[in-house]
UniProtKB/TrEMBL annotation:
Residues 236-314 form the Multidrug resistance protein MdtA-like alpha-helical hairpin domain. It comes from Brasilonema sennae CENA114. Belongs to the membrane fusion protein (MFP) (TC 8.A.1) family. Residues 1-20, 31-77 are annotated as: Disordered. Keywords: Coiled coil, Membrane, Transmembrane, Transmembrane helix. Residues 121-406 form the Multidrug resistance protein MdtA-like barrel-sandwich hybrid domain. One of its GO terms (biological process) is transmembrane transport. Signal peptide: none annotated. This is HlyD family secretion protein. The chain crosses the membrane at residues 79-101. It is found in: Membrane. It comes from the Bacteria.
Amino acid sequence: MERTNNINSNGRNKHKTAVLEKELVKDTETLEALTSENFTNKTLPAQTTPEADVHTQAETENKQVKPQPPETPKKKKPIGLILTALGVGAVVGGGFGYHWWQYASTHQETDNAQVAGHLHQVSTRIPGTISQVLVNDNQEVQPGQLLVKLDPRDYQSKVQQADAALQNARRQAQAAQANINLASKTTNAKTVQAQGDVSGAVAAISTAQAAVQEAQAGIPAAQAEVKQAEAGIPAAQAEVAQANANLQKAQADYNRYNTLSQQGAIPRQQLDTAKSAYDVAVAQKDAAIQGVNQAQARLASARVGVAKAQSQLAQAQEGVVSAQAKLAASKGGLQQATAGGEQTTVNRNQYEAAKAAIAQADASLKDAQLQLSYTNITAPAAGRVGRKTVEVGNRVQAGTPLMAIVNDESWIVANFKETQLENMKPGEEVEIKVDALPHHPFKGRVDSISPASGAQFALLPPDNATGNFTKIVQRVPVKIVFDKQSIKGYESRVTPGMSAEISVKVK
């Protein structure tokens, strides 16, 4: 590789020149070795004698005469192939970049999306004990299908009690209505009779007064006895009136206790006591009437005495007294008839109260029947059973969750960044990739966009007016519904909670 040229101008070897032959250097180590060797030849000239120079010159000429081996041809670099590859790569990369830019400018994507659906929580509306569980986990159910049965015996007993109370209220209403009719008829009859008695008594008084006028002269002593006897009559009549009032009160008490006894509200002893009081009042009235009769008899005896002295005057006065007595009795009968009308009013009020009791008892019966119907817990919608926590024998309270029914209808809730919603509108096409079914893309459309970001619906929404403010891109939920033909056959495999990737084609 190194060639030395000897230059001799005056027959002497003045100096030697080191020449590096052209050779392809393949690595840095070879280049460093060649450079080091050349530097050594330049810095360390050879020490030669004239004889050595002559000999060297001759050797050099001989070496120059010798033919040199042919040089190795240079290897050409494949620059054309490299440039071709780079060109093809640039074309392919440019095409891919253009298509990617075109796709990215018309699509909005996110992997923050989950499948959502209807989860119907099944719970009991009444407390009770579980007697039967008719479904298992993940079982398909239909609307109205019986899921769980509670022990119905307690509620059946309440229904029977409410029905008995309703029948009792109806019987009381019938009795009250019968009392109204009876009291009305009795009152009318007594009123007519009392009015006739009053008219007759008024006529008798007029006749007696005429007789008195005819016999005005009488013995003063007889008249005094007559007055004394007349004074005793009002007292006896007052006793009769008091006895009538006591009798009416005892009769009303007896009727009320009789009604309560029929209802079973009071013992039989109280009814017997009321009956005894009624009998005593009747006896007192009879005694008072007898007192009145006795007073009238004394008056009659006095009048007999007067009659002995003056028979015509005595007879006239007796007629007056008798007529007055009849008038008083007639007035008493009329008052009693009027009191009977008040009793009719009381009976009507009792009938209205009985009808109200019927309505209340009927409402109680319907409520008891409704509570009994709650012992059968049915499916609120079609779907599959999930999170079943109920077992036979469990004691549950009202509102205790028993299981959940997951409806086959599902949709996607995708949380897009607020910067992605500029051109997004309801009705736009969506490509859906569910992580559980990566080899089956679904089609859908944008249904609606949430009226607020997800952070606003959090338990503790952020308040940017307090503390240091850091702007964070918010995410807004977007509801996406599946295309029916796209999800057909996969309804039961796409379940709420699955993750998904969403690509919306915006316009």
